[in-house]
Amino acid sequence: MIRKILYAALALFIAAAVVGYLNRESLIDASIRDRLQQKPDPAFLANDGHIRVLLCGTGSPEVSAAKAQACTLVSAGGHIFLFDVGDGAVRSLEQSHVPLNKLERVFITHFHSDHFNDLGTLINAGWIWGRTTPLEVEGPAGMRAIVAGFAQSYALDESYRSANMPHLAERREVAFGKPLEVAFAEGKRMARVYDEDGVTIDAVLVVHDPVKPALGYVLEYRGKKVFVSGDTEVSPLNMEAMRGADLAVHESYAAHMVRRAIPHMKRLGMDFEAEVATRTIPYHADNIALAKQAQSAGVKHLLLTHLIPYPDSFVVRRMYAEGMADHYKGQLTVGQDGMLIIL
Ligand SMILES: [Zn+2]
Ligand SMILES: [Zn+2]
Predict the structure, then answer these.
(1) CA 136 / ligand 1 centre spacing (Å)
(2) Which ligand sits nearest to residue 251's alpha carbon?
(3) Ligand nearest to the CA of 69
(4) Residue pLDDT, tens place only, 152-172
(5) Mean pLDDT, to the nearest integer, of 324-329?
(6) Per residue in 119-129, pLDDT tens?
(7) Does 338 share its domain with 280?
(8) How many angstroms is it from 61 CA to the middle of ligand 2?
(9) How far, in Å, is the centroid of ligand 1 from the Cα of 219?
(10) Closest-lying ligand to the alpha carbon of 111?
(11) Which of 34, 232, 291, 323 has the most CB atoms within 10 Å of its CB?
């Protein structure tokens, strides 16, 4: 009986192979058409009352094939925004089928390189693949100089491509982006930077010394609030920005794991790594302190990103957030590249 089934399966397989071979030209054409018709996901542009948050990079400052550096996409009311664009972010956005040409503005939180390493790629790729208006890039004072620096780096590329592609030459300015700098009124910690179609975005000062200013951002839409922390230690100064957030996309630092790893690093002769680890503890958000703050701020969902040390296995993921649930009673998620939250 089993033998009969095997023979039948083999005969079917051979028949399929023969039919496939005879029709190979049309199969190849079909696969080419399929490839050409792959379109970005229009849901990111949906004006359906929801806020979509995509983690396009949850990694730490180390460069890694497994995850991108800092990147959070938020879309609402038909607008798409990006908060930071670290190394690997553009590839990650492409994998999630984000319509990159419709990206309206990139907000950079601060100028540690893991938050803007992919900015040049993002601007340049947009120009080459059909953006018609320059991508707006907003960040703290210093943003203009950084965008000008990228423009200088890409100037020759722009001249070569414009020389043989008239349609690119027609919109040269798109090749270099449009920088905007956040200004705060005297004594204020918050500044409105976007207000259209019911979507508002405020830049807020966070605490990441010696990086000054370091920004977080608050996006509000139809009574819902998302806080994107950028890099910050846990500070009472961030309380207002976090208060009542439906979702806080927050940087996170498992200090208990790092402290435990430091003696091992020293014993293994990894003095350089031990020094770096010791010095980064104070200016990031210790998970336990963060859990307590999220609880008192009434955050409904705490989504951890910028994960240090990166939890790259199931066991480490469990260890990573250990103890947080004792202090925080809302929904708690350890983020992962490609994770999509719909509010
Ligand atoms: Zn930083
Ligand atoms: Zn960082």
Answers:
(1) 22
(2) 2
(3) 2
(4) 999 999 999 999 998 989 999
(5) 96
(6) 999 999 999 98
(7) yes
(8) 6
(9) 21
(10) 1
(11) 232
- Do 12 and 52 sit in the same domain of this protein? no
CA of 116 to the centre of ligand 2 (A): 10
Same domain, 84 and 24: no
Q: Ligand 1 centre from 232 Cα, in Å?
A: 7
**Rounded to an integer, what distance in angstroms lies between the CA atom of residue 289 and that of residue 285?**
7
Distance 208 CA to ligand 2 centre (A): 10
270 token code pair: 């990894």
Nearest ligand atom owner, CA of 232? 1
**Nearest ligand, measured from the Cα of 209:** 1
Q: What total number of domains does the chain contain? A: 2
What's the CA-to-centroid distance between 284 and ligand 2, angstroms? 9
pLDDT value at 325 more than 90: yes
Give the residue with greater pLDDT, 288 vs 10: 288
Boundaries of domain holding 7: 2-35
User: Domain of 327: which CATH number?
Assistant: 3.60.15.10
**How far, in Å, is the centroid of ligand 1 from the Cα of 112?**
5
pLDDT tens digits along 193-210: 999 999 999 999 999 999
301-308, strands of its sheet edge to edge: 190-196, 199-208, 211-221, 224-228, 247-253, 301-308, 331-334
14 and 70 within one domain: no
Strand partners, 143: none
Per-residue pLDDT tens for 216-270? 999 999 999 999 999 999 999 999 999 999 999 999 998 888 888 888 888 998 8
